[in-house]
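Put briefly, the fold is written as integer tokens. One such record reads:
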Amino acid sequence: MLETSARLLRLLSLLQSPRDWTGAELADRLDVDVRTVRRDIDKLRTLGYPVDATPGVAGYRLGAGAKLPPLLLDDDEAVAVALGLRTAAGGTIAGIEDSSSRALAKLEQVLPARLRYRVGMLQAATVMVPAGGPTVDPDVLTAVAAAIRDNHRLRFDYRAHDGATSLRTTEPHRLVHTGRRWYLIGWDVDRADWRTYRVDRVLPRIPTGPRFTPREAPDTDLSGYLSRGVTTAPYRYAARITLAVAAEVAAERIAPTVGVIEAVDAESCVLRTGSDSLDELAIYVAGFGFGFRVLEPPELRTRIRELAARLGAAVG
């Protein structure tokens, strides 16, 4: 049987998992009787941990308190949190860098030597490249996430790529993060259709709108839906191009916000992408260094022939 202090720490660790525990389950995990579990629960409450009794059953869960209680993390969890904070310090959310750095410093201060060594080794061997591009206000992310959680309509001013601003009313569905940018997928009430919005261009209006009944998602694969929406739909020319390389190799060079890659076989794949400029499409695809064949649009094939003739004449 564990000593009382060790048992309390073990009990706290169990309660911090996202589930309800019956007294019998906790007693079995701690190798004590249910009465001892009840006494230990009372001790945790005395120490300020908000342990709630689950209504209807003899169960327990760790509730939300007025202050953040200490968290118990195992070795892998502690390393994951440290690396996550390190990554967030150079991320795409405005103003989070300093908070992440402070939290990381606090965590590293209390890590045991073996974990400090693992985290330090990874940090010393890693160079962080700033994400670049526009950042997102964390208050905007929080407001959008809250509207999604509560099924509230969201009204916001949206700035288009040309700088024009319009008022949008949406039923927000999900936030999607590509690693470089944040997007909102939602049902546009005025346009009666699904739309994708860059969150760095969103300025929510308060208060939010009335509650709505969530619709079925526009696609079971929201990441693929987003990629198609931002790579082809907004542009004048939608291109479909066969690349003479495996899909896995192409994916290493082509970001999901640039084009959608569909595997054909072990040696080829199809790239779907778009642009308002045929020249841009031609030069961009040629720059990959892969063999390729244009399937559509026919205007792109014509333009590539013209460019090839011009380039050939320049060195002939």
